[in-house]
Amino acid sequence: MITEFFADLIHLIFKAPLDLVGHTSFILTALSFYVRDMIFLRSLAIVSCIVGIVYNFFNFEPPLWLVIFWLSVFICINGYRIIGIILERRSISFNEEEMELHETVFQNFTSLEFMKLMRISEWRSVESGHQFAEQGKVIDGLNLLFNGEVIITRDDKELGHGRDGSMIGEMSFIQGGAATATVLSTRACRYVHWPKENLTSLLNRNPSMDIAMKHVFSLDLTRKLAGPEPITDS
């Protein structure tokens, strides 16, 4: 009984060869929702529309011109946006340090998103003894240690060390409030600083970047907890 039901259901869904074309169109559309890269996403959408046009032209008599017209409009819109994205990406260039960050810490950011992120950042260099954060005081932004080393203390007790790629102040950035630990450089450091208000505004305007940044925070915390010298964020 159940076998017959599913057999009838499959026959109903695929009763004509061209129905496979229609299903393919919707499958491609569904797949595009799982793609993060905008060029790939819009390319899938265009292919889906083309397949949909074939289905609506050959499977109906007369063809469904209303559907075909709007699918053609969607193809033009997506094609226009692909050209725009390609032109934007061609205008993007990173220096050696930025490329290293993009390929390591910010892998899940697109080139355009990373450019926006770096546009509001400041590269800074400090000597040994620089105080990145002081326990009980508000931090003015988020810092990423590009190279160097810091020591983290709380109530005069050492909690751990931070080295290349470590975030400083991410919990204070996420939750707000004062720093829960003091962070001092133990040698010369070069780091990236993002002013809190500017970064918050950027992430609020770009939900995909907000998700990507939270992923970076999550990986940083995991790495700290898994390290031989756990670090409690400031």
Structure description:
The protein is of the alpha+beta class and 234 residues long. It has two domains: 2-90, no CATH class; 96-226, Sandwich (Jelly Rolls). The protein has nine helices and eight strands. A four-stranded antiparallel sheet has the order 1-8-3-6. A hairpin with a 2-residue loop joins strand 4 and strand 5. The radius of gyration is 26 Å and the shape is elongated.
The average pLDDT is 84
Element-by-element helix/strand order: HHHHHHEEEEEEHEEHH
Radius of gyration over all CA atoms, rounded: 26 Å
Shape: elongated
How many domains, in number, for the residues?
A: 2
How many runs of DSSP E, i.e. beta strands?
8
CATH architecture of the largest domain: Sandwich
Just give the CATH class of the largest domain: Mainly Beta
Helix amount: 55-70%
- State the end-to-end distance: 64 Å
Strand content: 15-25%
Query: Structural class, judged by helices and strands?
Result: alpha+beta
CATH fold title of the largest domain: Jelly Rolls
Stretches with pLDDT under 50, minimum 5 residues = 228-233
